[in-house]
Amino acid sequence: MCVGFIGVLMALRIATGPVTADAGSVVEVTVDGAIRHQTIEGFGTCLIAWAGRFRDLYRTEEFHKIYVEGIGCNMLRVNMWGPTFEKPTEDWAQIRCEDFDMSADGGRPQIFVDFGRGIRRLNPDVKIIGTAWSPPAWMKVNQSITDTQSGAIRAGGYGSNNNRVDPKYFKHLCKWMVEYVKLHDRQGVPFYAVSPGNEVQFSQSFESCVWDGKDFATIVVMLREMLDAEGYSHVKIFGPETMTSHLYEGGTGDHDWPAPIQKGIGNALHNALVAGNCSAFVPWQITEGRKSIHALMVMSEYTPKTYTAMHYTRFLRPGARRIDAEWGLCWYTDGGTCRPEPSSATPPANRPGDRPRGWVRARRGETRWQRACPLCSFPSSAS
Fold first, then answer.
1. Given this model, what pLDDT does residue 328 score?
2. pTM for this prediction
3. Are 55 and 138 part of one and the same domain?
4. Peptide bond preceding 258: is omega within 30 degrees of 0, i.e. cis?
5. Which of 6, 21, 218, 288 is deepest in the core (most CB within 10 A)?
6. More confident position, 262 or 196
7. Would you say 251 and 284 are in contact if contact means Cβ atoms under 8 Å apart?
8. Taking a C-beta distance cutoff of 8 angstroms, is the pair 205, 146 a contact?
9. Domain boundary, last residue among 278, 295, 322
10. What contacts 308, CB < 8 A, 6 or more positions away?
11. Does 188 share its domain with 168?
12. What is the pLDDT of residue 108?
């Protein structure tokens, strides 16, 4: 496992182009196999389900192979779509998956089932995660799956925001989600985990639903109890983006060198796994029709961003265990190369305990400072 992490970092640095290495550019790594961290569950993305050309792409065997065998994804995030059940139903016990319309909006909810089947044929161990961006509109105070504009709430209350579930329909929401789990199970794409919220503090002009802390805690307990009662105690509850790890600025970054490793997918993955101790990494969509900060590819085309992600998704496989490894940070010189730090390196004078601008700790627990490299950028995460 440690060799995998070290190999990823070294390969990414060499691939940047502007960063050159010479015989003296040796990085010292200290490995401690006795210190164990998280077990890796995997990597995956969501899909663009609202556009016909993407649904057509997702149904091809070629793209199934790209997703599973090319990029190495073993997880898929599914939109549990509110408009699958638009019939107001006062008795929550009468909500049944047989009444769901999976062909709605040109088959928008059905594509997740079709794509899930396709990738599970290649890897039966693919894990499917369902997220409710918004429940059916009739369950909400504003009677809509979207808000009229973007906004946010604090965890302690809603303020004037009505893009939320009416408390009298909390059980209805949970039953709808359990029935969604049942439907996917019957279709051969069972859920590994589900989440009753996406960005639970953010209200958007696209599908969204806000939850304050008290109500979200209530709904999670209620959902857990209802899943257990229906025989789905094995289905986990997945935390929403607000509670896990989310990049609010720049998505997963740009596609062209050196962006993927300077401020993009490379350091996003590294920081999530090492600093965040995450066991899974499931960003937004797999592909778009152009280079986008939200996608890893351009249709079926691999980009430098794709290859950067593949250093992780292809080689850090489910069941791998992260062990402790610390490396010496590089020393940036005006010549534009990454070099080991000279032993005599000292930061500029500043008050005791302050972090000098552009410098980081040499190793955890040490008082010695080391200058951060603006070229490779990875070292800055080891402060």
1. 46
2. 0.81
3. yes
4. yes
5. 288
6. 196
7. yes
8. yes
9. 322
10. 12, 15, 260, 261, 264, 265, 266
11. yes
12. 95
Q: Are residues 159 and 214 in the same domain?
A: yes
User: Same domain for 226 and 359?
Assistant: no
Please report, as a single letter, which amino acid is at residue 85.
Answer: F
The pLDDT of residue 22 = 46
Which of 125, 117, 35, 112 has its CA nearest to residue 81?
112
Helices 2-14 and 265-274: crossing angle in degrees, nearest 10, is 160
Cα separation of 146 and 129, whole Å? 22
Q: Which residues contact 221 (CB under 8 A, 6 or more apart)?
A: none
CATH number of the domain where residue 233 is located = 3.20.20.80
How many distinct structural domains can be found in the chain?
2
Q: Give the domain range for residue 362.
A: 2-37+329-382
User: Quick check: 373 pLDDT over 60?
Assistant: no
Q: Which of 14-18, 161-165, 221-225, 309-313 has the lowest mean pLDDT?
A: 14-18
Taking the C-alpha atoms of residue 12 and residue 15, their distance in angstroms, rounded to an integer, is: 5
Same domain, 32 and 53: no
State in Å, rounded, how far the first CA of the chain is from the last one: 22
- Based on the fold, state whether residues 275 and 377 are members of the same structural domain: no
If you count them, how many residues does the chain have? 383
Q: How far apart are CA 146 and CA 118, in angstroms?
A: 31
End of a domain among 288, 306, 322? 322
Q: Are residues 260 and 215 in the same domain?
A: yes
Q: Are residues 193 and 266 in the same domain?
A: yes
